[in-house]
Amino acid sequence: AQSVTQPDIHITVSEGASLELRCNYSYGATPYLFWYVQSPGQGLQLLLKYFSGDTLVQGIKGFEAEFKRSQSSFNLRKPSVHWSDAAEYFCAVGTGTASKLTFGTGTRLQVTL
Amino acid sequence: GAVVSQHPSWVICKSGTSVKIECRSLDFQATTMFWYRQFPKQSLMLMATSNEGSKATYEQGVEKDKFLINHASLTLSTLTVTSAHPEDSSFYICSARGQGLRTSGANVLTFGAGSRLTVL
Question: Which residues on neighbouring strands pair with residue B69, listed in sequence order?
Answer without folding.
Answer: B79
